[in-house]
Design brief:
Elements: E1 2-7, H1 15-30, E2 34-39, H2 45-56, H3 62-86, E3 91-93, H4 96-99, E4 101-103, E5 112-115, H5 118-125, E6 129-133, E7 136-138, E8 144-146, H6 151-162, E9 167-172, E10 193-195, H7 196-204, H8 212-221, E11 225-229, E12 238-241, H9 245-250, E13 255-271, H10 276-286, E14 291-296, E15 303-311, H11 315-329, E16 332-345, H12 355-365, E17 372-376, E18 379-385, H13 389-399
Helix pairs in contact: 1-3, 2-3, 6-8, 7-8, 10-11
């Protein structure tokens, strides 16, 4: 049996926690399993390295920045290997170029193209516990690349997929995936299982347990992911896996997400002519601004209004670009940075009617006005004033039955 374990920055933030990771890996080895451990940089290390680069240059060279920040994971890998050897076990750290985790050359946000198995399988046959630095790869020129924040999750899943591991365990500072943020709702409950589709929606809507790309990869190659806490010795965690019939029938809603990082921009009195919307959103795209929700009302007297949302960090930039276009076409542009998005997610929405109606009724009963609505087959999102965000989460959590104790019971 082969298991891939990934430990985040909090789990390896000091020598004591690295020793704890070593003990977990040894425990699996004692059970006769082959073990590959993927590690992140020690907590805060990546930010420290980036700050050093920005002290030197406002816009540091991307290739060299990848070389710089990849060292954080390499340090953790070596420390863990040293720890395991000191504890009497065979261990070896293998860098991305030694494993051959091949990526494209998009520095800072590279995508994995291939994982070569030979070096790892050879070292496993020798009885080693393998340690791999997460978050990085190597391109066709042999240059170091990094995969973006949270990229160690993707490294672990890619290794599990390439080596056909039995399970990929992601260790974090939480003991699984919850029905909502426990910091907002004290009655949030850990889920025993969640489907890839639901996890993708929750991750895209603000849940920070797993990187989106790692879930996409797991779904593509059917890699089961077990999310567990590295701070708790015993704990079942949450299994992220393919959809099963009872998962869809058990509950209508699996989780509620809340993202207060929203900015709303409204373009008023847009001439109702072909190409205007294209001009606005092409300009935003060229500025690398990702647009979330878009709503255009029905044309009235030759004009309509267009409203869209972007992440708060891009708000002022998006407003400036849109205002310049608005001035050219005679439209007025308004910005509201005090917005939040609350969403409900669940496979059960496919087979249950009235979910949207219930969500809107719950929000209305709390006096919460809905600014924008977006839906998919298993998700409904509403943009509301940010001051009502946490109230909305608690009300929806209660009214959709997620406060109930049996949400996390084994099926």
């Amino acid at each position: 049996m082969l298991v891939v374990q990934k430990y985040g920055g909090t789990s390896v933030r000091d020598v004591q926690r690295i020793q704890n990771v070593a003990r977990r890996a040894i425990d699996y080895k004692k059970r006769g399993m082959d073990v590959i451990v993927v590690v992140s940089a020690m907590s805060g290390e990546t930010d420290r390295l980036l700050n050093l680069a920005h002290e030197i240059a406002k816009f540091p060279d991307l290739r060299e920045t990848d070389v710089l920040i990849s060292t954080g994971e390499q340090v953790t890998s070596a420390l863990l290997a040293i720890t395991l050897v000191e504890m009497g076990y065979k261990a070896i750290s293998l860098m991305a170029d030694q494993v051959r985790i091949v990526s494209d050359s998009t520095y800072g946000f590279a995508r994995i193209a291939d994982v070569e198995e030979g070096a790892i399988r050879a070292r496993l046959k020798e009885g080693n516990i393998i340690i791999v630095p997460g978050f990085q790869g190597v391109d066709e020129f042999g240059y170091i690349t990094t995969l973006g924040r949270g990229g160690s999750d993707t490294t672990a899943v890619a290794l599990a997929a390439g080596l056909k591991a039995d399970v990929c365990e992601i260790y974090t500072d939480v003991d699984g995936v919850y029905t909502t943020d426990p910091n907002i709702c004290e009655k949030a409950r850990r889920l025993d299982r969640i489907s890839y589709e639901e996890m993708l929606e929750m991750a895209s809507l603000g849940a920070k347990v797993l990187q989106i790309r790692s879930v996409e990869l797991a779904q593509k190659y059917n890699v089961p992911i077990l999310v567990k806490s590295s701070l708790i010795e015993e704990g079942k965690g949450t299994l992220v896996c393919k959809e099963e019939k009872d998962m869809m029938e058990k509950v209508v809603i699996s989780g509620i997400t809340y993202n207060k990082n929203e900015t709303k921009i409204t373009v008023n009195r847009v001439p109702d002519k072909p190409g205007i919307a294209s001009k606005i959103f092409t300009a935003l795209s060229e500025a690398n601004i990702v647009v979330d929700m878009i709503v255009q009302n029905v044309s009235h007297e030759g004009y309509n209004d267009i409203t869209f949302t972007v992440v708060k960090a891009d708000g002022k930039k998006a407003f400036k670009i849109t205002s310049e276009i608005g001035e050219a076409i005679g439209a007025k542009v308004a910005i509201d940075e005090d917005m939040a998005k609350v969403s409900i997610v669940g496979l059960g929405m496919r087979s249950h009617s009235g979910v949207a109606s219930k969500m809107f009724t719950v929000l209305a009963a709390e006096g919460i006005n809905i600014e924008l609505i977006s839906t998919s087959e298993i998700k409904i999102s509403c943009v509301i004033e940010s001051k009502y965000g946490e109230l909305a989460v608690r009300a929806l959590h209660k009214n959709f039955g997620l406060d109930a104790e049996d949400v996390t019971e084994e099926s």
